[in-house]
Design brief:
Blueprint: H1 15-27, H2 34-47, E1 52-55, H3 58-68, E2 76-80, H4 85-93, E3 97-101, H5 112-118, E4 123-126, H6 138-147, H7 159-168, E5 172-176, E6 184-185, E7 188-189, E8 196-200, E9 213-217, H8 225-236, H9 268-302, E10 305-306, E11 314-315, E12 321-324, H10 330-342, H11 358-361, H12 371-378, E13 380-383, H13 391-408
Parallel strand pairs: 2-3, 2-4, 4-5, 5-8
Antiparallel strand pairs: 1-9, 6-7, 6-11, 8-9, 10-12, 12-13
Helix pairs in contact: 1-9, 2-9, 3-4, 9-13, 10-13
Length: 409
């Protein structure tokens, strides 16, 4: 068969996004302005969330979720060992410590029994991660934190954080939903499944703003959603009590700095891309599902284990296609990835567990303590999955997989 050159995860940008960016550039608003505000409203409406705050990354969104909760030095955050660094780094940025939880033996989700055992008096948040766009078992997570209420003492290094922790009265569930925008579980959209959630709109994500992310939350009894939105704005714009758009109103030049905070706002140029992507998103999700169903059929023919993206309990947004090369070890997996690349099909690995990384080894973590995470990693491989693939591309990827696995496994 004639060799093709496949891209692993290019952004799906059309002339509509390009034109909207041009309109934004011509408007004079290229930083946070009316398009960001519209993007936030549409995200919240799409998810069924009370509010959304558009930011410059999912990492910033997760960090601000922790800061809104008042999490900081002396607190502990429980994080999966099997995830990308942003999940853990966002907690570390606040001064909190992290504790890794191994994944279940047959899953990329945390071992929920191990999670329950890990919760201590210091624990202020747990971070489920929706890897590949598949929502975690949030019902189980909430059962766990409810059972552990007796260990929880409200803290918080800010007045707002103190009030939120007191209102919750338990460990907060702070979802890393970077992969799962558009996914749902038991009729609820990702972004409404946890107390606080963070999304990514990075260039490789299903919906992109080039760089970007968003924080969303569920309403908390006794806490005003408008106040939370205001504080996210303060945290993302230097603690300034008016953004550039608000200062354009007649006589509204004056502002105050409430605290020396951070700078992580989204721009109108990015939001222009995001608004068109939102218009197109249903068709993008449908195309991802078509590709996944073809991959599933091929993996089942080859006897390769793969993630289940669509079940009675949940519907994934199909961000990554992760399979396991049954019977292969790390060395054989590397050989297969190289053989696929030689045929023009780049494959990847999601993810190398964090205890294997230098930064986390330097914090004292050892992969030997997380055997399930290592076992899931050692023969995992991700196939290209994006909406720029046409049917011929998908058929070619499958043919290459069948040929290479037939030789190497």
């Amino acid at each position: 068969m004639e060799q093709r050159k496949i891209s692993f995860s290019p952004p799906d940008i059309t002339e509509d996004e390009i034109e909207e960016v041009c309109v934004a550039l011509r408007s004079g608003w290229i930083t946070t302005g009316p398009r960001v505000k519209e993007f936030e409203k549409r995200i919240a409406a799409y998810l069924g969330a009370p509010c959304a705050v558009a930011l410059n990354s999912a990492t910033a969104a997760e960090e601000l979720n922790f800061r809104i909760l008042g999490i900081g030095e002396g607190d502990e955050v429980l994080v999966p060992a099997y995830t990308y660094t942003a999940t853990a780094a966002a907690a570390l940025h606040t001064g909190a410590s992290i504790r890794f939880v191994d994944c279940a033996k047959d899953s990329l989700e945390m071992d929920y029994d191990a999670l329950e055992a890990a919760i201590s008096e210091k624990t202020k948040a747990v971070v489920p991660v929706d890897i590949a766009g598949i929502p975690c078992n949030y019902e189980r997570v909430f059962e766990i934190v409810e059972r552990k209420r007796s260990l929880f003492t409200p803290g918080g290094n800010t007045e707002l954080g103190q009030r939120i922790q007191k209102a919750l009265g338990r460990v907060a569930v702070v979802s890393d939903s970077a992969h799962s925008f558009g996914a749902s579980r038991k009729g609820k959209m990702a972004g409404t499944l946890a107390d606080f959630s963070s999304f990514s709109f990075h260039a490789v994500k299903n919906l992109t703003t080039a760089e970007g992310g968003a924080s969303v939350w569920r309403s908390i009894p006794g806490i005003d959603d408008g106040e939370l939105y205001h504080w996210y704005q303060l945290y993302s714009l230097h603690g300034q009590d008016k953004d550039a758009l608000a200062k354009t109103k007649l006589g509204s030049w004056e502002y105050d700095i409430i605290a020396p905070l951070y700078k992580c706002n989204l721009t109108d140029v990015g939001a222009a891309i995001g608004l068109i992507q939102l218009d197109r998103y249903p068709s993008l999700l449908a195309r991802r599902r078509e590709i996944i169903e073809k991959y599933d059929a091929a993996c089942e023919r080859l006897g390769l284990e793969h993630l289940k993206h669509y079940t009675e309990d949940y519907s994934s947004c199909g961000h990554l296609y992760i399979l396991r090369l049954s019977g292969a070890d790390d060395l054989r997996r590397r050989e297969i990835i190289t053989a696929m690349a030689e045929k023009g099909v780049p494959c990847n690995v999601h993810y190398k567990p964090l205890p294997m990384m230098t930064a986390y080894k330097n914090l004292g973590f050892d992969i030997k303590d997380y055997p399930n995470a290592y076992a899931r990693y050692a023969n995992a491989m991700s196939l290209p999955l994006h909406t720029k693939l046409d049917d011929a591309d998908v058929d070619y990827i499958i043919a290459c997989l069948e040929e290479v696995c037939g030789e190497k496994l």
